From TrEMBL:
Residues 298-539 form the FAD-binding FR-type domain. It is a single-pass membrane protein. The keyword Phosphoprotein does not apply. This is NADPH--cytochrome P450 reductase. It comes from Sphaeramia orbicularis (orbiculate cardinalfish). Residues 98-243 form the Flavodoxin-like domain. FMN binds at residues 104-109, 156-159, 192-201, 227.
Length: 696
């Protein structure tokens, strides 16, 4: 999935004043004259005189006035300087020898990059984290100008093996520059991915391989982080071996300084104009009050909620359908795209954090970077209040990573607590097991940790420095812009579960969306959002058949697909077979969009509607079972009719089971071996005929 570049165009309206041609009528009144006297002026003289006067007046009135030069307000964009685009010059100026680039979509790779850059100090070196989008990556060949220099790349993979948004330009640069000589570059890569996805860690693997192809020297083996397992543990294990290798390579020794290193300093504002204080804006101050397109991840649009209804008729879950109004926003989307929303944390959790730490959450503060040369001046928009930071900017619900525990350990007054926190941050088997059981398996967030460790009461400013940013959440759009050009539909299930400690944990975004009533105390509820482009697209030729497989809320993008195929038919276009395989637990409880789907089947838009009600009979029936039942029809659609296959939903089980079903169909009806069948499906993927929009 890629974000379409937004271009801000400024239309200058030229105004011209059209002067109407004016004919001045001159009326001449003549007094009676003595007949004998010769008239002073003849009629010809009077005519010529009047003509000259008229022309002079016309010239004065109609001569072109100098057009006023339109006054353009100077944009506040700072001039790009060498300091801002050249990481080499910045490193030289600040005495840094290690640079950690990150390709990050949800903030984790950026977090790891910051940790590695801070680590450098403990090994007698100086590091900086850097967003490749902000720098000229063509300078990598110059890194050898800096003694003992090293480039580390923390690269996440997004979607179907894609680079993250901020690493897209770097990826393109690597692909396009075959003649680049990086023989002076020393590097290593840590990749972040998820094994449940087809293209596991594709971006990290590509960067590692490509840098070597361009002549760079790998100082340490590629690290592979698996978010389906324990990404934190993978990172720590790699990091523990990485730094000794760096020290050996450069002939340096660790300084042994294991103390906490602060990156930001606190400034409290006792007397400040509240108009200059951030209240939840993602980018520009007051951007939620004065909305200006284009809208993107740094400038979301506040979309009013026009519909918020429960979809399921029974059961203990809450499945919902929301509609967001984008009228007047100039936002465009296509079926298959994603809508990103910026949620806020539950105010009850925020208040509890304030109470347990004994602080006034409404104090206005700034956290200022101690490195004045850093592009990142603050960890989140400042100045703001602790309440705003904990509500809008910081992730307080996910279990904290080990580096947070390590940094906070110093504030525990109980030596046993301090010891356990440091142990959990170590790479020892005992420490890893303790972190896994006490933090991850028990789903303890920072509030739960503070509640269960009464001796731990850190300064709130240090806690705010360490907590990761609250990230946007992505949802597959459940509508077609052909039918709903001014509306975006969301289909989601509210996340709520009990932890091993007996606490009730609630999903941040889904519970926030659930409470977005159409009108709240007379005011329209709004959702900060933007569109993220996707590769999940209907075939270019409408005559191609489509097979859509989406159980549960995986139905979302297919509602858009069905709407679009219906619209095409209304336009008189020839549309190929439109086949849906949908699954839910019980027909009478959670059959989502039942009326819409049955209507689409009735009017011929859906040529096949196959539904697996998994728990309405003794043996569970899932979508993959229905695929196998209809194998002859499926094989004909794929092998003969050039059908496109789309899968949306759970990556860990459903997507794998469905793919296995296709392998088995290809084996049985295509007369293939398992290897040939696997290759056959992979070729469909390569051709863009087997697309997945899955999550784990």
């Amino acid at each position: 999935m890629y974000m379409e570049g937004n271009k801000c165009t400024q239309n200058i309206q030229n105004q011209s004043v059209n002067m109407a041609d004016m004919d001045a009528e001159t009326t001449t009144h003549t007094q009676p004259m003595v007949e004998e006297e010769e008239p002073l002026f003849s009629n010809l003289d009077l005519f010529l005189f009047s003509l000259i006067v008229g022309l002079v007046i016309y010239w004065f009135m109609s001569r072109k006035k100098p057009e006023p030069i339109p006054e353009f307000k100077k944009l506040d964009t700072p001039t790009l300087t060498t300091r801002e685009t050249s990481f080499i010059e910045k490193m030289k100026k600040t005495g840094k020898n290690i640079i950690v680039f990150y390709g990050s979509q949800t903030g984790t790779a950026e977090e790891f990059a910051n940790r590695l850059s801070k680590d450098a100090q403990r090994y007698g070196m100086k590091g900086m984290a850097a967003d490749p989008e902000e720098y000229d990556m063509g300078e990598l060949s110059r890194l050898s100008e800096i003694t003992n220099s090293l480039a580390i790349f923390c690269m996440a993979t997004y979607g179907e093996g894609d680079p993250t948004d901020n690493a897209q330009d770097f990826y393109d640069w690597l692909q396009e520059n075959d003649d680049e000589d990086l023989s002076g570059l020393t590097y290593t890569v840590f990749a972040l991915g998820n094994k449940t996805y087809e293209h596991y860690n594709a971006m990290g693997k590509y960067v590692d391989k490509r840098l070597e192809e361009l002549g760079a020297k790998r100082i340490f083996d590629l690290g592979l982080g698996d978010d389906d397992g324990n990404l934190e543990e993978d990172f720590i294990s790699w990091r523990e071996q990485f730094w000794p290798a760096v020290c050996e390579h450069f002939g340096v020794e660790a300084s042994g300084d294991e103390s906490s290193i602060r990156q930001y300093e606190l400034k409290e504002h006792s007397d400040i104009n509240m108009n200059k204080v951030y209240t939840g804006e993602i980018g520009r101050l007051k951007s939620f009050e004065v909305q200006k397109p284009p809208f993107d991840s740094k400038n979301p649009f506040l979309a009013p909620v026009t519909v918020n209804r429960k979809l399921n008729r029974g059961g203990d879950r809450h499945l919902m359908h929301l509609e967001l109004d984008i009228t007047g926003s100039k936002i465009r989307y296509e079926s298959g795209d994603h809508v990103a929303v910026f949620p806020t944390n539950d105010s009850a959790l925020v208040n509890k954090l304030g109470q347990i730490l004994g602080v006034d959450l409404d104090v206005v503060i700034s956290l200022n970077n101690l490195d004045e040369e850093s592009n990142k001046k603050h960890p989140f928009p400042c100045p703001t209040t602790y309440r705003t930071a904990l509500t809008h900017y910081l992730d307080i619900t996910h279990p904290p990573r080990t580096n947070v525990l390590y940094e906070l350990a110093q504030y525990a007054t109980n030596s046993k607590d301090q010891e356990n926190m440091r142990k959990m941050a170590s790479s020892s088997p005992e420490g890893k097991a303790l972190y896994q059981s006490w933090v991850l398996d028990s789903c303890r967030n920072i509030l739960a940790i503070l509640e269960d460790m009464p001796s731990l009461r850190p300064p709130i400013d240090h806690l705010c420095e360490l907590l990761p940013r609250l990230q946007a959440r992505y949802y597959s759009i459940a509508s077609s812009s052909k039918v709903h050009p001014n509306s975006i539909h969301i289909c989601a299930v509210v996340v709520e579960y009990e932890t091993k400690t007996g606490r009730i944990n609630k999903g941040v975004a889904t519970n926030w969306l659930k409470n977005k009533l159409v009108t709240d105390n007379g005011h329209k509820s709004t959702v900060p959002m933007y569109i993220r482009k996707s590769q999940f697209r209907l075939p270019f030729k409408a005559t191609n058949p489509v097979i859509m497989i989406g159980p549960g809320t995986g139905i979302a993008p297919f509602m858009g697909f069905i709407q679009e195929r219906g619209w095409l038919k209304e336009q008189g276009k020839e549309v190929g077979e439109t086949v849906l395989y949908y699954g839910c637990r019980h027909k009478n409880e959670d059959y989502l969009y039942q009326e819409e789907l049955e209507e689409s089947e009735k009017n011929g838009v859906l040529t096949q509607l196959n539904i697996a009600f998994s728990r309405d009979q003794e043996h569970k029936v899932y979508v993959q079972h229905l695929l196998k039942q209809n194998k002859e029809d499926i094989w004909k659609l794929i092998h003969t009719d050039n059908a496109h296959i789309y899968i949306c939903g759970d990556a860990r089980n459903m997507a794998k089971d469905v793919q296995t079903a296709f392998h088995e169909i290809a084996e049985e009806l295509g007369g293939m071996t398992r290897t040939q069948a696997t290759d056959y499906i992979k070729k469909l993927m390569t051709k863009g005929r087997y697309s997945q929009d899955v999550w784990s």
